[in-house]
Here is the input.
Amino acid sequence: MFTTQNLVSVAIAALLTAGLYAVMSYGLAIIYGVMKVINVSNAGFLMLGAFMTLMYSQWWHLDPVAGAVLNLLPFFGAGWLVYKLLVRRVVNSRSARPIASLLLLFALWLVIQNVALAIWGSEDQSIITAYTYKSLIVGGFRLPLTRLIVFAVALLALSLLHFVLGHTYIGKALRATVQDPQAALLVGIDTERISALAFGLGTALAGFAGGLLTLLFSFTPDFGGPFQLKSFTIIVLGGLENFAGVTVGAAILALAESFAVLFMRASLQNVIAYGLLVVALIVMPGGVAQLWSRIRS
Here is the structure.
């Protein structure tokens, strides 16, 4: 028998997780929106962000939140270089097919994963902080301090991202390129530069999210794969090119996973994400917004 308090606790935990899910998925949505490229290497950079945060903690005793923020600049640079040296040659080639970019980025993911295996090995790693096992009592509910911190940082990051996309020239140029690349080029937007910026930003968000994930999970070089699939589910639920829909998709997945644990083993939680991805692709490939428009009409 589930009490009202138990159900509310599960819902709160889900919403706290949704913020992090949205951050780790935004990069995929931005890159796909601008270039129509499925960035499979996102999983590798997510994992690498976790290990770099571990290194900061071991070298300088840096808090994982500060480590996640520190990841932003080098990962942005790495994403920019990956686009300039690799992705651009495939995407802009007249003879290129969509499968070429997918295979290229999949190969990059494997390279990153194997380099991580060579450096750090296959053992589980984790970061323990002074507040890892602490909780706060809010309204009679016990909330883990790590989840509250991750949610607050993720919410701040999403707010800054929405501001940049909505109120700066670069953000408006990026959104214009998503809506119509040819029209954006005709009005003077450097779409090549915007594409490099989008790939850099997407990679930076992956490194940032990887750093935040170290507060909640242990990790290995295989760490990024399950979260990659969750991100795919989220952006499909949100509508692929709909940036605002990423937040909605993250909330749906987090709620579905959390309430499913009440009826199934926690080890099967990833099945929910896979099932939602299949359902979303078949029933609502345009995302929740498209489904809502069908219902209203």
